[in-house]
Design a protein that fits this description.
The structure is a single chain. This protein is of the alpha/beta class. It has one domain: Aldolase class I (TIM Barrel, Alpha-Beta Barrel). The chain contains 11 helices and 8 strands. Helix 1 packs parallel to helix 2. The longest helix is centred in the N-terminal third of the chain and has 15 residues. Bound molecules: 2-phosphoglycolic acid.
Length: about 250
């Protein structure tokens, strides 16, 4: 059985102090989340150390929002895999649509980053998803399949077994307009079968996930949790969502 994961992507929100306050409030609430549900927090780089220090049990895992593919070098402003693992990071989001749209992360770059995350012993959460114009043109499947194949190209079967995927329709992110769960399930089954070896890989849905709608997603056979933006910023709200994921 695939594991159920609720991952909070805080994007560019919270200072290190604010992040620490979140964790202090969240940990007691996380005790009520069913144990089989894995919880991941992905703060900004500047808050990773503060959050890591507070996560003294495995109950909540630490994730980063991006990474550079080289281990070190003259790449001003960038953060490498070894720097993240040194801080206790276990997961790294790669290919988020905001990175693709605003920071030039092409499919080729997403592939380099995915491989680098795995080579550093970390777990990539590889995000794919279509824009509204691609969807309206009827090209959702072709687009997400191409993104998935490009991101995973060249990975060994043992590396593929260690990844997590996220399907995030771009038009659903931060808009309150979430994708119909059955439709998301259909796209995810296409993603799962477009590369051999993804049968046991968790695929998360992302895009306006809330405590009120997460269970409708996780009830679908192909959906193994949520990648959550806005609803992960408040400790009580995110704890409620993590609890609701397993109902
Ligand atoms: P949202 O963001 O939950 O605020 O829609 C999801 C994401 O971008 O990962």
């Amino acid at each position: 059985m695939r594991r159920l994961i609720c991952a909070g992507n805080w994007k560019m929100h919270k200072t290190a102090h604010e992040a620490a306050d979140f964790v202090k409030a969240f940990l007691p609430l996380a005790a009520a989340v069913p144990f089989a549900t894995e919880i991941v927090l992905c703060p900004p780089f500047t808050a990773l150390a503060a959050v890591s220090q507070l996560l003294t049990t495995d109950r909540v895992q630490l994730g980063a929002q991006d990474v550079h593919w080289e281990r070190s070098g003259a790449f001003t402003g960038e953060i490498s895999g070894p720097m993240l693992s040194d801080l206790g990071v276990q997961y790294v989001i790669v290919g988020h649509s905001e990175r693709r749209e605003y920071f030039g992360d092409t499919d080729a770059i997403v592939r380099l980053k995915t491989a680098a995350v795995l080579e550093n012993g970390l777990t990539p959460i590889v995000a794919v998803g279509e824009t509204l114009s691609i969807r309206d043109a009827g090209n959702t499947s072709a687009h997400v399949i191409a993104q998935t194949r490009a991101a995973l190209e060249g990975l060994s079967s043992s590396q593929l077994a260690r990844i997590v995927l996220a399907y995030e329709p771009v038009w659903a992110i931060g808009t309150g307009r979430n994708c119909d769960p059955a439709e998301a399930n259909t796209v995810m089954s296409e993603i799962r079968s477009c590369v051999p070896g993804l049968h046991d890989v968790p695929i998360l849905y992302g895009g306006s996930v809330k405590a009120e709608n997460i269970a409708a997603y996780t009830a679908q056979p192909e959906i193994d949790g949520g990648l959550v933006g806005g609803a992960s910023l408040d400790p009580a709200v995110f704890a409620q969502l993590c609890i609701a994921a397993d109902t």
